[in-house]
Amino acid sequence: MTPMAPTPTAVSPLEELPLDVLEEICEHLTAGGKAGRRSLFSLSLASRRLAPATSRFRFRTVRLLVKHERKLQQDVKFCRNILSAGNYTRYVRRLEIHGTMYWDESADAMSGEGDEEDEEDEEEATSPKADDVVANEWPPEDDDDFWGRPMEPIEFIPSYPELTTKEDKASQEKAWSSLVAFLPNFIHLKEVVYACRNQVPAGLLRALHSHPRTPRLHVHGFSLRSLYQSRSNLRNIDDDEYLLISSQCLTSIRARDTTSGYDSRGHVSFNEEAIWRMVARESPAIKAVSIWARLPGHSFDHYWALSPPKPQWPGFFREAPHSVDKLGALEKLTLAGDGRFSPSAVRNWGKHTNFNALRSLQLHSRSASLASLQALTVAVKSQGFASLQTLALAGYSFSRHEQGHFDSVIAQLLHSLRPLAHLHISGIFRNETLNAILSYGPTLRKLRLIPERGADLELKPYVLTRARIKRLVRACPEPYRSRTPYSAVSGRRRGGVDL
To answer: Which residue stretches of the chain have pLDDT < 70?
Structure first.
C-alpha cells in the first residue's frame, strides 16, 4: 500500500503579508501596553513564519527585577539562554533594572518594603517565560504623558543606604558582577533605566562607560547619599557617587529631596545645590531633571536642626574652587513639592542652566506664590525661553489679597512667552488668563485647565461655562485629544477642561 503524501499546511492570509506590513503590525502591538505585548508574544507562537517578524520587537527591552545576588545571577543566566538561542541580543536597545538589592537573602525575605509595588514586577520579570523577561515598553523616550500625573521617582529613602566602608562597596560590586559581565553582549544598547532603591553601582557605570555606543542612563531614584551630612562633619562627596554625576552617560534623573533641607536625623541635605552644579558643569550629558520634595519624618533631631541657618555647601570637594562659569542646557525641568518653586529657585536655576534650551517646564507646587510667578515672568522677559513648548504650573495662595492678583500675573506670564504647544494651568485664574490662552491660536495642541475650587478659596469660584469652552475649542483647531469637559452649566459638574 502506497503511503499517503503529507497534507500541505494551509498558509493563513496573515502569513502571506509582506515583511514590512508585518513589522508595522508588530510596531502597533508593541505600543499597545501590556495587552499589546501579550498579543505580540502570542503572534510569535502562531507560526514559524510569523516568529521572525516579531523578534526585533519582542526583544527590544530587557527588564530585570533585582532582590539579591543569587536571584540576579539566575535571571541573567536565563536571559542569556533566551537571547543567545537566536542571536537576539542584537535587538536589545533598552535595559531596565528595578527592585532592591539586598546583600543578605534573609533580609529580602523579611522585608515587606515594596511588596505591593513589586507584585506586578514579579509577574513580568521573574516568571519563566521569555516574553516576561524581555518585553516592556517602547519607544525608549523618557517622556511623561501630558494627560497623566508627572512621572515621580521610585519610593525610597533618599539618605539610605550610604556605603561608607570598603567592605560594603566590595559586597555591592560582587552582587552586581553577573549583570556587569553580561552587559557588553548588548552591542546595540541605547538606553539604561535604573530604578532601584540602591545607589547606581560603580561597576555598572564603568561597564556603560566602556560600551562603544555610550548608552543613555536614566536614574529614577536619584539621591546623593553622601551629601546628607552632619552639620559638624561636612565632607567631600563619595568617589563612587562622583563617578555617577560626572558620567557622560547620565542623561536624566528623577530625584527625591526634603522640603526643609534636612532629613529626620537632622542631617543637612546638599542635594539641591549639587544638582545645580551637575547641570552647569559636572554632568555633561544631562538633559532632564525632576526633583520631588517632601517633608521628612517628624523627629526632635529634625526640629532642632531647623533653628540655626543652613550651612553653606563647601562643594563636591572642599579643596577645589567652588565656581560656576558656564550654563548647562537642560531641556526638561520638573519641580514638585512645597518650596521647590520660589523666587530664589527661579534665580538659582537661571544661574546654572540656559533657559533658552528648555523645552518643558513643569511646576507642580500648590504653594506657588505671586512672587514666584512674577520672578518667572522676569526670567522669561530677560532670557526669552525661546525653545519652551510645554508649561505646567499651579497658582494658589491662602491670602485673599494675593488670590485677587493671580489672574493678571498668570496672564502676564503667558503673554511674555512665545506661543506654546502644551499648557496645563491649575489654581486661581480668571478671564485674563483665558484671553491670554486664546491668543496662542492654532499653535496650542494640548490644553488642561483646572480652576481652584477648594474650601479656602476666598473668591467666587471660576466657572468654565459652555460658552468659554466653545471659545477655547475654536482657538484650538487641531486638538490632540478631546474629551467631554467638566462644565458648571448645570451647577452639578464643576471642574476643568481638557482639549
So the answer is: 1-11, 14-16, 19, 30-37, 104-150, 321-325, 339, 366-367, 398, 454-457, 477-499
Cell numbers 542631617 correspond to 267
Distance CA 23, CA 50 (A): 10
Radius of gyration of the chain (CA): 26
Helices H / strands E in the chain, number of each: 18, 14
List, as one string, the DSSP characters of 403-443.
HTTHHHHHHHHHHHSPPPSEEEEEES--HHHHHHHHTTGGG
427 close to 406: Cβ distance less than 8 angstroms: yes
DSSP 8-state symbol, 386: T
Which DSSP symbol is given to 293? E
Q: Which residues pair with 63 in a beta bridge?
A: 96
pLDDT tens by residue, 277-303: 999 999 999 999 999 988 887 787 887
90-127 pLDDT, tens digit each: 989 999 999 999 876 665 554 554 444 444 443 343 33
Name the amino acid, one letter, at 447.
L
Which secondary structure element, helix H or strand E, spans residue 145, and what is its range? none
Domain spans of the chain, in order of start: 17-57
CA separation (Å) from 207 to 46, 71, 220, 275, 284? 38, 21, 19, 24, 18
- Which three cell numbers mark 414? 503667558
- Cα(414)–Cα(432) distance, rounded to whole angstroms? 10
Q: What is the pLDDT of residue 38?
A: 74
In angstroms, the CA 230 to CA 235 distance is 9
In degrees and rounded to multiples of 5, residue 305 shows phi and psi of -70, -25
Q: Are 498 and 147 in contact (CB under 8 A)?
A: yes
Amino acid at 289: V
- Return the HEC string of 320-385: CCCCCCCCECCCEEEEECCCCCCHHHHHHHHHHECHHHCCEEEEECCCCCHHHHHHHHHHHHHHCC
Angstrom distance (rounded) from CA 454 to CA 52: 56
Grid cell in block for residue 160: 539610605
Give the count of beta carbons closer than 10 Å to the beta carbon of residue 498: 19
